[in-house]
Structure of DUF6606 domain-containing protein:
Amino acid sequence: MDESILNHLFLPHYLPNSADEDFLIKGKHENEYKLLDCLDEYFNSIAPTHLPFTLPVFRILHDGIKRWAAFQNPQNFSASNIQSTIEKLSSGSFLPLYFHTQNASILIEIDEKNQAVVSAWEVLLSTSEITSSVTRHYSCFPVATYRLRDRNQLSAKTHCEVLVDFMMNTIEYSKLPKVSGKEEEILDVPESHYVCQWWIQHFQGLIDNDTTEICLPFKKKHRDQVRSKSESSPFRRSGLWMTIKVVVQIILTKSLKENAIIIYKLFVTHFLTYIICTRPPPVDLLVHSIRKIVRRLNKIDHLIISSASESINQWIENTKNDIQDSINRIFPKSDWQQAVRMNEIRNEDLSMENFHLNNTRICKHLCRDLKAYLDGSAVREALETGVDTNGHYGDSSQNTKNIDYVPSLESLTNKCRHTMGVALTRLEIWVDTHLEQWISHGDLAGREKKFQDLLVFFEEYQNAALTHYGSTDPVGYSRFILTSLTIIRSMHHKLCQDNILKRLNAHSIQIPNLIELFEFLVLPNRDDMVRAESLYDFFKEFASKSYPDLLTDIKHVNAFGVYYAGQSLAMNNSIKQIRRQAEIDKQNKIQEVQQAKQRYTRLMDSIRGRPCSCYYDSDYNSYIECKVCSISATADRITVSIFENPMPVQRESALAVIFELQMPSEIRCYREVLWQFLNRPKHNSSNMMHRWLNVSPHQTKLSSYYHGPEKCKVNLVSSTTSVTQNYSSHPPRVGSTAIEGFLFENSLEVRISPTQPIEFKEEQHMLTPQLNHSDYKQLQFAINSTGFIQNDVIAKLSNCSLSIQPKEFVEFGSFRSGHRLQWWNLLAALETGSLSIAEESVAILITHSILQYGPVGDNKSNT
């Protein structure tokens, strides 16, 4: 039993092939409940002897685990027991249940009002989903929860019998497709929708509960393993253990909020330590388990603790110490590692025996441009004019001490006489080291000015960087990407600190191909890589937010502008004023059309029944118009311009329009920066859009409500012009058009200036060095990515030049096959001498591989 428990908790390298060989999940998972017994045992062991470990929430957790452990045992699971237990659930208590026969779990909670709240979720993924790719899989929590109007539905006898049936019988298994394409009933995980959907929906009087207000969202990684798919029931990691972790984190998160994640991780780590202390495994499994625990502790050390109480801080400190003491007690004391150390000493120079550092051919081509630069006077001039005796740059030495100082490209290039490259580097350094302090300094009143200054700074920097770096400087262009993203993130953080604007935290930031672009950034130092990792985490998190970003559908019901304007009294008053004036204009237009029609009618009535008497005067060689036709022409010339409502009828569209007109200046500046970065390097490109404030009648009716600057790159636009302008040259005929034909609702689209992102392949090309050597030129595709392309290289062996060996051709082409294998490939190349390090193309390949950020895995400690 102990071995089985350790297998499911620690997933060692050697696991059973079949579920029938595992104690916990063999048969019908009849022993799986013993995991809960272990947890109950753990709680009982720490309660009397470790008082500093006790937090109030753990008493609630222990009661729930003890109750759960009693029922998870199939032998104790009966309708009468379930019925009596649910009836006795008090306020603040909970009861989870895991149905391995349905591959689902449920959680019943009793809130402070003694009302029942229920939720259900799928536990394990199907075998095909787990084994179809190497990417990690996550489940998001909390899942949707529902409040019951009548709690007695849970304790009804029929409902309890349904739960018993769920526990004992599988309703439907997933189907796995065979290779031939035919489907065969194979025992995969059961379908969960009978519990996750039907069980929830069968209750009467369900009320959708807002889980995000109660429990902060979190994700659980599926660390599942599928062994021997040929078995009728392959080994799978315990779904009960997954459910235990989810339930524990839900309860802790509801109680401890932001501090729950570190408490949860420490709690699980302490439990795992307790398991290996009370059930000593073999030495190899013990070392494997301790390594996992130490890795967990290292990750916990990097977690940020929110403003926590003294008791929580004390609990964290005591728990860490207890885990460390336990590890020190059980860690094997033998000298089993000594042999490994001796091996390393004997072979430390094996890979370098044929590598001569004094070979000048290795480095010569890399330093050619650097030597030419150093021989010139550019560096000396920059140093002489750019740094004063205090170590400050140029005439801005006093400014750099001022926390409100923002460097200017014009000042750096004209006054300090820096080259464009040096000036751009100084701007990038300021963003990296001073931006956060600068943007956080000062009060709320000065925030608008700071955002306006930062917009000017970004526009100046982006224009110069794109021109200077172009497509020939991968390192510089990578710094431009990092600097721009740092500015966007800093502005976003500052905005979200305002309670009025904190809704931005729920909106996504969609920058096309950004996450994929990180792989190709060329970063020459560790600090840049650390910053890139931080930015990657930030933008990946916000790319998956549920609410739309600021640059797509601005009239969506969940759009930020619609939400903000809906909450703004001033904006709603502006909408009312515009609508009120529009109604007045509409009534005036109706009266004007009526008067025109009356005049038209009078003129036409005056000539009704009278014949035309026009004639041709040959003496004057002209056509003489009669009075009847003259009056008719006068009537036809009566025109009335149409009325068009400047404000859309739909409420969401109206809110979007008024937000575009009156949005806070900080939001407008932030969106301008974001939009210009998305449109790199085409942020000045024209489009065939019509700006609302340049189109009649919106120009005259809405201009007074516009609070933004005159020149903006992101404007309220429409791909079509207004009905008013279409009818300006040929208004409707008064005589034949009804009054309704002169009245129109707003005809302009509600959208903003579209984005034109750069093609991903174009940007990838800018960040990738190009090979010009005739022997390696055909292998450019091998340096363009880190995908496994060794087979493609071998297939192109017929293109191998006669001046290099086929082995060298294949070695060069497969060097970057798999980002994490590159260091192994480099060591192998140095050891075997299969690549000529003195060759420039080879040096480019190796240098680029070392400096490129590369793919980011879910477990970034391994990347």
